[in-house]
Write a structure and sequence with these properties.
alpha+beta; 5-stranded mixed sheet; 5 strands
């Protein structure tokens, strides 16, 4: 028989019941009421039989009843609850002594007469519920004792047989009442469990929705900072090649070749982005070190700028409004986009890249974020600032790595960046998600500096916060 209690084993014991509460427990508990009713039946039968020595037997039965009235104390000390079919959880000396006295008094009464034999039906449940260990052994001892006394006294009388049937009925009624009480006790708990399940389902839905939103933002940032930039460059180069195809076919061919190179880089980024969904490697990280990956990107941009500048120089005057407006690419971090990428510049902007400190391996997320910052900050400077020089510097320090991108272009007011732009906002989200610091320093006419500082080994708490 298993423990069907709804109370945790670690729950503190109930407070000591008073006299009124103990009496109430004796009268309302099915087990206690059954035991006392059977004891009263035995007393009535003993008094009615008028056998020799019955005063002694009545006195011992009264003592047995008095001892049994200590059942509420045994419940409290052992953790048993007969009304809820909760088994004892603690091997309490008082309870063990109480059970021993009960068994001894019943056995003496059964040996001296058959009037109290019906108590064995309730005694089975008392031993089963209050004995914290060796329950099966305890019930077996009671059964063997009852069988031995019956064999010693010979066949039972008709009255004893009838009383045995009554006792069996009361025992069955005891079980039914106990289970009904257990069901009443369990109903509120089932309601709580149902609410917990609903809350867990709602929490899972909320977490799943938040995770999907985070993934969409991540994908948007990846596309914006890599593939969209390459596509914008391809569009710019192909438009220039189309305009100069007949007037300067050599320049147009060079622009087409540069556009093809940017297309290859964009396809590589797209494949890496797809692969990142199945691996732990962030998109954009190729074979080689972080400085090598940055230099590879900058070299492709230099070649594209040179080809585009030559195409535009061969084309001559450029119509107003001919600038590239790539939705979601152009960062409106300052004044409106220039009429043309190169305006009246005599040569394309110069792009320089430097490293300082002792290079070393960085966590993949840190390398990925610094690479994306270099790409996005360079793109913003070229599309909007009309710079003559853009310089990217990767600084390795013992505990941190810093990426700084400066340009000498038109500058802007960082406080006036619209909320619907993605570049600087996604960069800030990337850097701060790794526990780093992100700053943008700029003033109109004085150029711009974008800087990200990240720990070389992000703290565990920062990684957990980013994942949430």
């Amino acid at each position: 028989m298993g423990d069907v209690s709804l109370t945790s084993a670690g729950q503190p014991p109930a407070p000591t019941p008073g006299a009124g509460r103990g009496l109430s427990r004796l009268l309302t508990s099915p087990l206690h009421a059954t035991f006392l009713v059977l004891l009263a039946v035995g007393l009535v039968r003993t008094a009615a039989a008028g056998v020799s020595g019955h005063p002694w037997r009545i006195g011992v039965a009264a003592v047995l009843g008095a001892v049994y009235c200590l059942a509420p104390v045994a419940e409290r000390r052992s953790g048993a609850d007969p009304g809820a079919l909760r088994l004892a959880r603690r091997a309490d000396p008082f309870t063990l002594g109480w059970l021993t006295v009960l068994f001894g008094l019943w056995l003496w009464l059964d040996l001296t007469g058959s009037q109290f034999r019906v108590l064995v039906a309730a005694l089975y449940f008392v031993v089963l519920l209050f004995l914290p260990r060796w329950r099966t052994l305890g019930v077996t001892v009671v059964a063997i004792a009852a069988a031995a006394v019956t064999a010693r006294r010979g066949p039972a009388s008709v009255v004893d047989q009838e009383m045995t049937v009554v006792a069996a009925f009361l025992a069955l009624l005891l079980v039914v009442l106990a289970f009904r009480k257990e069901e009443r006790l369990r109903a509120p708990a089932e309601g709580v469990i149902r609410q917990l399940r609903e809350s867990r389902a709602q929490l899972a839905f909320t977490q799943r929705t938040a995770g999907q939103a985070d993934e969409r933002r991540r994908m948007a940032a990846e596309v914006h900072d890599s593939i969209a930039q390459y596509l914008a460059g391809v569009k710019f180069l192909l438009e220039g090649a189309e305009r100069t195809l007949t007037t300067a076919p050599a320049s147009a061919g060079e622009a087409t070749h540069a556009a093809r190179e940017l297309t290859d880089l964009g396809l590589r980024e797209a494949r890496a982005l797809i692969d990142s969904a199945h691996t732990r490697q962030p998109a954009g990280l190729r074979d080689g070190t972080l400085p090598e990956n940055i230099e590879c990107h900058l070299a492709a941009v230099r070649r594209a700028l040179a080809a585009g500048w030559r195409v535009e120089g061969a084309d001559g005057a450029v119509e107003a409004g001919g600038a590239v407006e790539a939705d979601g690419v152009a960062e409106a971090g300052g004044p409106p986009a220039p009429d043309h990428l190169f305006a009246a510049a005599e040569e394309p902007p110069k792009i320089a890249f430097y490293t300082s400190g002792e290079p070393g391996p960085l966590p993949p997320d840190v390398e990925h974020t610094l690479l994306r910052l270099a790409q996005e900050a360079l793109s913003n400077a070229l599309w909007h600032a009309r710079p003559r020089q853009v310089t990217a510097t990767l600084t390795y320090e013992p505990q941190e790595a810093t990426m700084t991108v400066r340009d000498d272009g038109r500058g802007f007011d960082p406080a006036q960046v619209p909320d619907d732009r993605h570049g600087l906002r996604s960069l800030r989200h990337r850097v701060e998600g790794l526990g780093g610091t992100f700053t943008v320093t700029s003033r109109p006419g004085e150029g711009t500096e974008v800087r990200a500082r990240l720990r070389r080994r992000p703290a565990v708490g920062d990684v957990g916060e980013r994942r949430r």
